[in-house]
Amino acid sequence: MRRLLDSFQTNTSASYRLLGLHDTTMGAETFDADADGTKWLLPGPGMVYLQTPPQVGTVAIRLESWTTAPPPPSGPWAGQEEGEVELPEGELQLQTIDCGMEEIPLVLPSPGTYRMRWQWVFNPDIGRTFTSPLKDCFGAVLDNPGGHEADLKGQDQFCLVQIWRTVAA
Fold first, then answer.
1. Is residue 159 a contact partner of residue 118, using CB atoms and an 8 Å limit?
2. pLDDT digits over 117-162, tens only?
3. What is the sign, positive or negative, of the torsion defined by CA atoms of 153, 4, 70, 24?
4. Hey, is 38 helix, strand or coil?
5. Which residues on neighbouring strands pair with residue 55, listed in sequence order?
6. Who is most buried in 27, 120, 140, 165, counting CB within 10 A?
């Protein structure tokens, strides 16, 4: 039976079109040099980066830890992507180039391999057009269906990250 174990919400910056989620054992490493720049998520050992539009400066992010794969969240989303990452410590931190590392008090069951589902929307009330940061369509105008205004809390982007363990370490 799946259930929500824990959640944590914060605001952060997205600098240089990147927002990172790292295991605390990782330093200032970056994603793999051969990571597919046509995807929103750029994986690396013990970490994953989300590419963000150049117009995004601030991000409201909600992280959720689940026992098993959660149901897809309701409502319209501007984008969604999933990835898998090995978390050797099982403790997380956010990383942005401007703000550095911020530890996250999110409870994960144990170290191991985790699946992450990232969903996001952009703030329709700030009067900006959001454009793609992706390699194959850089600068293309992104669809932003609206919704989730309460979750945006005045920030440029809202991300919901759902995390569940696939393999224990």
1. yes
2. 999 999 988 888 999 999 989 889 998 887 788 899 999 999 999 9
3. positive
4. coil
5. none
6. 120
- Which residue's structure tokens are 């998520």? 41
The residues, any chain, with a CB within 8 Å of residue 138's CB and separated by 6 or more, are 131, 132
Banded pLDDT at 16 (limits 50, 70, 90):
confident
User: Rounded to whole angstroms, how far apart are CA atoms 63 and 160?
Assistant: 6
Q: Give the amino acid at 114.
A: Y
Helix (H, G, I), strand (E, B) or coil at 102: strand
Q: Which residues are 31's β-sheet partners?
A: none
Q: Flag whether the pTM goes above 0.85.
A: yes
Per-residue pLDDT at 151: 92
C-beta atoms surrounding 13 within 10 Å: 18
Query: Which helix (H) or strand (E) element contains residue 152?
Result: helix 149-152
Distance CA 30, CA 81 (A): 19
Q: What residues are paired with 161 via a beta bridge?
A: 63, 118
d(CA 75, CA 5): 22
Residue 106 identity (one-letter amino acid): L
How big is the CA angle at 36 (ends 85 and 165), to the nearest 5 degrees?
A: 15
